[in-house]
Each structure stands twice: as structure tokens, then as C-alpha cells.
Hints:
By secondary structure, the chain is α+β, with helices and mostly antiparallel strands. The protein has 2 domains: 13-118 and 270-410, Butyryl-CoA Dehydrogenase, subunit A, domain 3, CATH 1.20.140.10; 149-269, Butyryl-CoA Dehydrogenase, subunit A, domain 2. 49% of the residues lie in helices and 13% in strands. It is built from 15 helices and 10 strands. Strands 1-4-5-8 form a 4-stranded mixed beta sheet, with helices on one face. A 4-stranded antiparallel beta sheet has the order 2-3-7-6, with no helix packed on it. The termini are far apart.
Amino acid sequence: MTGADRFLDIERDSWEPVHLDPPAPETGMWAELTDDQNELRRRARDVAVQELRPWAAHWDETEEFPRRSLEAVRDAGLLDLCIPEEYGGQGKSLLEGCIVVEELARVCLSSAMAVQPYLNGPWRAIHELGTDELSHRLLPGVADGSRHFAIGMSEPGAGSAGTDLRTEIRPDGDGFRLTGFKAWMTGGSVADTMIVFGRHPDSEGPYGIGAVVINGRPEGMREPETDSKMGIRGVPEAAIRFDDVWIPREDVLIDPVADSKNGARILVQQFNPERCGNAAMCIGLAQGALDASTGYLRTRQQFGRRLSEFQGLQWKVADMALDIEMARMLMWRAARSGVDGFPDQWSTITAKLHSSEMVQRVTNNAIQMLGARGYSRRWPVERMFRDGRGLAIGGGTAEVMRNMIAGTVLGTRTSQRRG
């Protein structure tokens, strides 16, 4: 190690927080949590600091899927946290899943994104919408970490316009045939189980939408293709083509009925747990950026004073902390809401919208306060800024969330469709 390298290591360690101590459990929002929930936070924070953070830059640089992080979270007894007990899990709530994923995202968003499907992911749709046989067949593998889920909703021509999907689920004897192309499947290149949305061939718009479960790599399923992306580089987005893939009746999650809108309603609703997790990851990432900022301000000196003594920077810190606190309040409300396993729509979209824009403000401010160090790839804030940007797109864009909120407030649904 050169003298310059040693200096940089020492300087970095002097301001990057080591223990990530949270506010005392008896203060503020933390007073609302039970002792068990606060203990869960401590456990998640410990594995994040000890096991995830040393590898965070590696996953970003190499674009390698963070399997080591998954194993560490599993070994800490957190991967099966939310799976119902009858399938080998601990049966904890969505809120507790969000508490854990927030702590993981505080140090490494790629790792948190890899864990997210196990805590707040597609398995919830299997449990709530599928048959008992399907749940008993698939969920134990989620609980023990041997099964990795992904979801296929978006298509090249159906992003925000989710009901414009063209993938077909065509009846064929006692089963179906799946043909189409799915894009932006988070973790799709490593998943062995997928929920894929499509439509009855005699339907259009919100009618005839259904969903099927894909296990492994059946005949007719092409190999996933991935693109390099700006952030969350350890968990790739995949594009996959399906050519006449046979789907047995027992693997149909939502029956595609040509004249029914039920599938479209479920398509929107079943994603709400993941939107809560998205909000939690935004909050954790922003908290990590605030941790780095405050550590740096306490250490760095200019004009003979610590940066933490300058009022202009104090106000930035106050705004960042307030932004995070409001986002966490909205996320907790959403995670505690709803019935039948799915959070309330209003609570979820308000939490998702605010959090995904909040993380951009906070990480951008963190870069500004750290100056050249914030812009340098030697330190984590630059990565945090890149990682946070994608969270305002995935799971529903900010524009779509605003349309949904406005429609509720105005008591009307204004179509964005031409004509």
C-alpha cells in the first residue's frame, strides 16, 4: 500500500460510521416498535455492517449478483422472516420485512434488492392468490433460500401502461401456452421461479389479464439477456422471450378470462408489498447517505472550524433528516395497512412516491456536502446517488403514482390514452 493509499484509507475510516447506531429505541418513532422489533433492527444492522458493507463496492464494480449477502442474511435468520410458519418461515409482518430491508439498504442497495423478494416479494401473491398446493410446493424453498423469485410484468411496449401487455396466455387443452417477451425483470437472470403476466389472445386493454408461474427453464423459454445499468448493478434486469411455453393448469395463478378485468385489478394490487419494500430501501439508502454526511461534517475542518459548525450545512442536515422521517412514517403506515395480505393502495403509493423522490434529494445533498469526496468512486455516496435513481422508476414511476393520487383526490379516473 502506498502512502497515498494509506492516507485515503485512514481519512475514509475517520468519517464513515462503523456501527450505524440508530436513535435510542425509546425515542421518536422507534418508541412505537416492540422490543422484538427493535432487536430485529439491531440484528439486521449487525449483519449489514459486518457482512454486507465490505462487499458493497464489489457488487457495484463487478455487476456480480450478491449471493454472499443472501447467505449472510440467511445465516442471520432473516431471510425466512416473513414466510408463514406452515411453510417453514417465521410468520412476521410486512412491517418487519420493511424494517430489515431498510437496514440492509443503509449499506448496500444491491444486497437489499437481492433480499427483497424473500421478504416482500412475489411469493406473497402465491400465498394470497394461488392454491394451497402451489404454496406448499413453492414457499418452503423461499423460506430456506433455495428458491429465487422474479416477476415478469413490463414489456418493451408496456411499462407505465401496464395493461398494454402483449404476451399471450393461450388456452391449450388442459393447460395454456405462454408466448411473448418480458423486460426489466429484476433478478430475472438468476431466478428459478417467475410469475409472468400475460393476456387471453381474445382480449385487450384491462380485459383478459392473467398470470402463470414458471419453474426452472422449460422448453421454449430463451436464455435471459441483461444490460449494464446506472445503479443497483449487483442485481441485473433481465429480458426474456417465451415461445409457446407449456403451462400446466396447476401453475396458473390468475386465470386469463377474456371478458374479465379481475386480472388487471390484481396486477396492480399484488405489487403493493414490493412497493412498501421499495420505499423501505429508499429510506435505508437515504439514511446511509445522511450517516456518511454527518460523519464527514463532524470530522472535516475548513477555515479553522469543523464543517458541522456551519449553519448552512446544519440546515441541509435538518432537511435531510426531516425528509427521511416523513418517508419512514408513510412507509410504516403503508406496511401496517390493508387486508387480505395486500397493503392499502393509497397508503402504498403515497409512501412509494415520497420515498423515491426523497432519496434523490438526500443523496444529491450528501454529494454536495462531501464535495470532491462525494463525487469520487472511492467513497460510497456516489454509488448511493446512482442506486437511488432507479427506485423512482421501478415499481411504478413517480408520474403514474401522481396520476393515481390525483384520481383519488378528484374522485375521477382520467385516462391517459389517446382518443
